[in-house]
Every structure is written in C-alpha cells, then in structure tokens.
Amino acid sequence: MSLQTPDEGLKRVIGIPGLSASLVNCTIGAGIFALPGIVGAMLGASGILGYLVCGIMLASIMMCYMEIGSRVTGSGGSYAYVEAAFGPFAGFIVNWLYTFGYGILSSAALMNIIADSLSVLFPLFKDQLMRGLLFALILGLIILMNIRSAKLSVGFVKIITILKLIPLFAIIIFGFSHIKAANLHWEHLPSLDTFGDATLILFFAFAGFETSISASGEIKNPKRTLPLGLLLGGGTILIIYILLQTVTQGVLGNQVSLFKDAPLAAVAEKIVGPVGVTLLLIAAAISCLGTVSSDVLSSPRTLFAGAKDGLFPRYLAKVHPRHATPYMAVITYAILIFIFSVSGGFKQLAVLASCAVLIIYLAVVLAMVRFRFKKEKVSDEKTFRVPGGLVFPVIAVVSIIWLLSHLSSTEILSTLIFIAIICVIYFVMDRFKKERPPVSDPDMD
After folding, report:
1. pTM higher than 0.90
2. Residues 88-93: what's their mean pLDDT?
3. DSSP secondary structure of 347-400
4. In a domain? residue 11
5. Angstrom distances, CA of residue 108 to CA of 15, 74, 296, 343
6. CATH number for position 317
7. Chain centroid to CA 272: how far?
8. pLDDT tens across 27-61, in order?
9. Is residue 191 packed enough to be buried (19+ CB in 10 Å), middle (13-18) or exposed (0-12)?
C-alpha cells in the first residue's frame, strides 16, 4: 500500500469532534458500569494509581498511532498501517484478527448486553425471538445510517455519546457531595501481583480506541485531525474513568467489594433512590448501543480496505454510487454481528479478543518504528512525530509484551490457532490468485 492516499471514492467528512466522539463511544462501553467495583475491590483507595499506569501505557500506544496515522491516511486503520510497513501477509493477519477476532465478537457481546439490560425492565426481551427482532431492528437502522452518509453516522455517534455521558457525569457531579474522605484514605500499596492483575483488567477497559481509526479514509485532514482527535478523546476517557473511580470509592468505601457487579448502580441508588438503578440500566443499554454504532461506522472500512487490496471478495470494495459509502462492507459486517448475536457462538470465541487486540497494537507500534527509520521521503507534507525519540514506542512494546505474558494459556492458544488458520487461508488464496489470470472488472474501478 502506498503512503500516498489513493482516491478511494469516499468522502472525508470526519473532523476532530466526530473522531473524538467515536473514540469515546468505542472505548466507554458496558464495562464502565462494573469497572470501578472490580478495581476498588482489588486495589481499594489506591485504584487511581492503576488508572494512571494504564493511562501511560495507552498514551504510549496512541502516540504511535498518531505518528503512523498521519503518514498512512487511507482506509483501514491498523490494517492499513501494518500493510504499508510490512506487506500484504502481515496486513492480512492483522485485518482478520481485527475484523473477526476482535470487532465482530465484541459487538455481538454488546448486543446481548443491550437485550439483557432491557429485559430487566421489559421481560419480553428474554425471549430469543424478540431478542433477534431487537438485534435486527438496531443493526438495520445503523446500516441505513452508514449507507446514507458517514457524516450522518458521525452525527448519531455524537448524540449517543452525549446520552451516554449524561448519567456518568450526573454520578460524578452529584456523587461528590456523598463522598466520605475516610473512604479515600490509603496507607500502603497493594502487592505487585494484585496491582498487575488489576492493571491488566484496566488496560482492556481502555482498549477500543483503534476502532475509531478504521475509517481513516474518511477523516478530514488526517495529519492534523487524527493526532488531535486521539488526544482529546483519550484524555476525556482517562478523566471520566478517574472521576468515576474516585466517586465510587468515596461513596461506597470498604463496601465496594459487595457491589462488584454494579457499583455505579449502587452509587446511583444512594444518590436518588431505587429509580437510580433503572436509570443506570437504561444508560448501560445506551452505552452499548453507542459502542456498536461506532464499530459499524469504523470497522467495515477495514473490510473495504482489505477488499481493495485483494484480501477479501471484491464486492466488499464497492462504493455506493450516490452516497459514496462502502455499503457492501457495512451490510456484510453488520450481518456477521447479527449472526453471532443471535447464535451465542461469540461466547466460546470471545477469548480471542483480548489477545488479538494486543497483537494488533504490537504490530502497529513496530510499523511506526519501521517508518521512523525509513530514509526515503514519505510525504511532502509535515506529519506528526512522537517526541522523545523511541521512548514512547519502547514503553508501548514493553507494556504489550508484559500484558501478553499475563494472559491465560487458553487465550494465547486460541489466538495462535486462529492465526495459523489465517495463514493457511492466505497462502491458499495467494496460490489461487496466481493460478487464475487477472480479470478486469470495470464496476470496481
């Protein structure tokens, strides 16, 4: 893939606010409603340190994304960066890992959380048929928006982001008056093993930002928008997480371990009574909806980019003649989410997600380092450059390897088997393409 962005037929309509909103939506999902309880139970009042450590680790990785994203500006995000640096084989692995090992399974899980949250208020959503109809309705509307315009989808993401953040900010604002100073006092640090386990959980709560970058071919002025959008979105997420942890620990204190499954609901109940639990259930559903909508906005662009490079069926590279959107990739991606949502098969495959995203991060960081040492001129325009030489890339690589070492053998083995299958698919496809003469398709030009 050339570093010079080809004319993909897509419209660059995503600015800094849209990218930041998408990043917040992709990262702050259903997990935030349980995260403060888990961290509080493991680290107590010192949990803030865990957030700061994870913030440094994620900042290092995001810095690498900022630099390489300002150089490689076509569609595909992580895939585009790795493919440009290491070639089609590495790009193929990352594309499949991201699309099938991470994105689709994560969104399928979130769709079920939406139904589970609503079923508490509306028991009819416990029925499998009604759940399927709900999934079809939600994904159908998201498909229509994405086909119509990326700009329309970004507008929806912005609205959902606001709706998602309102209850979280309400807990932060009104919860501060219920904080007891004694609950925030800590005399010693937790053990290194406990701190490491908590940091691992926190890290995956921050993961997801890379999804918003998959629509890189539709980002306006990516050399400026991508670094600023990542910085604004990442900073917003860190501040929200720290404030929510402070309020939860300050209100619940030592009782936080009793509410590990729903700590924010417990805080909301203390603030406004039983109605707070209902509001938090609705907020959780909205939060998941926002994450899925951001995923369907961004991730199909990875399929689209892969199809343009011959990694997937060429119909996935079709651009809508009127709306200039990758409509076939959007439809296909959403259908796959629907299939896994209704089948429940994602529960067995979801172990791939955590390991897959770490491998993707590692590949992107190494791709950034490779470009840093390339002597040829990659662009006439000024690109973002990570300060401090290789300090941030080194921190990123060490952090990723450390996190990989803490994963379970099941997660690592599942990912290795999946990568082996991907390699077989790649070499079979490559052999098939060599045996077949190229066919000109005027509709794809």
Report:
1. no
2. 90
3. HHHTHHHHHHHHHHHHHHHHHHHHHHT--S---SS-----SSTTHHHHHHHHHH
4. no
5. 28, 27, 11, 9
6. 1.20.1740.10
7. 32
8. 777 677 778 888 888 888 888 888 888 888 988 99
9. exposed
